[in-house]
Amino acid sequence: MNLTKLQTFLTLSDCLNFTEAADLLYCSQPAVSMQIQSLERDLGFPLFDRIGKKLYLTTYGEHFKPYAEQIINLFHSSKEHIKQLDNLSAGTLSYGASNFVGVYLLPAILSMFTKKFPGIKINMNITSSSHLLDMLEASKVEFLVLSDRIPIDEVRFQSKTFYQDELVLIVNNQHPLAQKESCTLDDLVDETLIFKPNKSATRVYLEGKFNEYGISFPHFMEISNLEAIKQGVIHGLGVSIVSRFAISQDVKHGLLVEIPITGVEFLRGIRYVFHRGKHLSPAAQQFITLLDERNERAYENKLPTF
User: Fold this and answer.
1) Helix, strand, coil shares of the chain as percentages rounded to 5?
2) Are 254 and 238 in contact (CB under 8 A)?
3) Is 45 left (phi over 0), alpha (psi -120 to 50) or beta?
4) 150 closest CA partner among 203, 209, 109, 194
5) pLDDT digits over 178-234, tens only?
6) Which of 181, 142, 176, 161 lies closest to 261, judged by CA?
7) Pairing of β 48-51 and β 54-57
């Protein structure tokens, strides 16, 4: 078995068309067929079925595909790591981040990193947590940065929480609560609470906390994007509980008001995650070091993290 066969298989599995695969691989259609037949002989099972004029992955092919992706991605990662051994004047840093983390937390660290290592190309993938875990599984990224409320396989993956994020109540500047120094959860029962959808890790966490305090909110609205949630609060659609870090500029400019909730604290950790036993590239090691050092300095000086 060689990498060319695996790459041919992956290309064909995506487009499911020999002619298109040949065009993408800059080779002939018979060459694609020969590579697939040779790979199937190596493996001892069929990868594709022809039904009429259409091509389909077999069950064997569907199960084999993630392993083929891992092999190809690990090969490219190994070349990248070796390239970075002498110095960090060139190379790529590829990682995944959840929406809040990628949009609000990491740009400051990226700025520090790129000033220190200007030759390193940055590839930050911001997407859903389920897609991020699939990318890590297939070694498409070296590590992830995401909420500790997102479950991971602790046997297979190593993680470290480097930041504690506090979620706070926000209202617009015309809301009656905006004139108060604090409120209680009972004060919010008649409000429309703007949530992320029910599969969101933040939503699950908040509803779990509400259950602990024995309270529910009959009026709510679901919006999947954090910026849209903030805009919804600004325009009077309701109130919300979001990361303090994400609304700092809006509060500073008077668009939103943060109201402490008496006797209630919403905290979640932000962590980085990678395969146990994986050799992280020098660029990834340097980036993770910056994550740790920035928050250690902030803690020692009693400054806000990030």
Assistant:
1) 45, 25, 30
2) no
3) beta
4) 203
5) 999 999 999 999 999 999 887 788 888 899 999 998 888 889 999 989 999 999 999
6) 181
7) antiparallel
